[in-house]
Amino acid sequence: MSKKITYDSDKGGYQNKVIMKSAAIYAALILLTLICLVPIWILIVNATRSHNEIISGISLIPKGYLAENMKTLKENSLYNKFFHPLIGMRNSLIIAGLCCGLTVFFSGMTAYGLVVYDFKLKDPAFVFILAVMMVPTQVTAVGFMKLLINMNLLDSYIPLIVPAIAAPAIVFFMRQYMLSSFPLDIIEAARIDGSNEFRTFLTISIPMMKPAFAVQAIFAFISKWNDYYNQSLVLVSGKPNQITMPMMVQKVIAIDRNADYGANYTAIFLSIIPVVVIYIILSRFIIGGVAAGGVKE
Questions:
Q1: SS3 label, residue 1
Q2: pTM (two decimals)
Q3: Maximum CA extent, the chain
Q4: What is the mean pLDDT of each run of 10 residues along the chain (297 residues)?
Q5: N or C end: fewer C-beta atoms under 10 angstroms in the chain?
Q6: What is the distance, to the nearest Å, from the Cα of residue 30 to the centroid of all Cα atoms in its chain?
Q7: Alpha-carbon distance 79 to 58, whole Å?
């Protein structure tokens, strides 16, 4: 009888530890979620508030000034000279969309080559990619500008899109994903069946790497959408029909004469809508990949 009581008490103590550990994990996750979401919620709420309400303090309750703030952006001479959200979104979508596609496709192809093929320069090539990843963009800015001037490519989207083909960070993450969860036996089977290498990559590798492609597509799209630094370097003329959404938002925020904070927050709110939409579209691939990886046969 005493042994049974001891066993039951030990079992109860273990269950209590598991419950406490789970509660601590959930509390930490809820705290991190709030840290990520509360600033975004405050941004959305401020886009629905007036200038006087915003300067009076923080609020978590939306108001009804969103339409008025958008009207201010459209009709106020301080803003309507350069802030045209549909044009800015169109330009940003062209740059971010093409960069995202090129970055993910060619980075995935590079990672595929580093994992699937064996050649003498395989490890040095990967080390070189890591070395390039550690070089800040600002270090190469002067040489990059001289090259663009010599090639007469200023005020063009080409220098913002073509360099996206080389993305060392995404190559690194793609390679790590393939090393951990990509079955090379399937590639060998495809070769035996007569499939050429490029077709194997397109029809077998890409579908199997959907979660990795989706995650890196989100990162690449957000990075290029928010890339004010390079866009301001290349699009030097600042033509209203050519500048991107980050450049328009920066011009709005830079206004310090009779600034309307409600209009400012509305401009920022409009600029994040495409990013949220892209995340919602691609997140299902991430969730599906995690769910598939959690099932063992």
A1: coil
A2: 0.81
A3: 90
A4: 52 75 91 91 92 88 89 85 89 92 91 86 87 82 87 89 88 87 83 84 85 86 89 86 90 82 91 87 67 43
A5: C
A6: 22
A7: 25
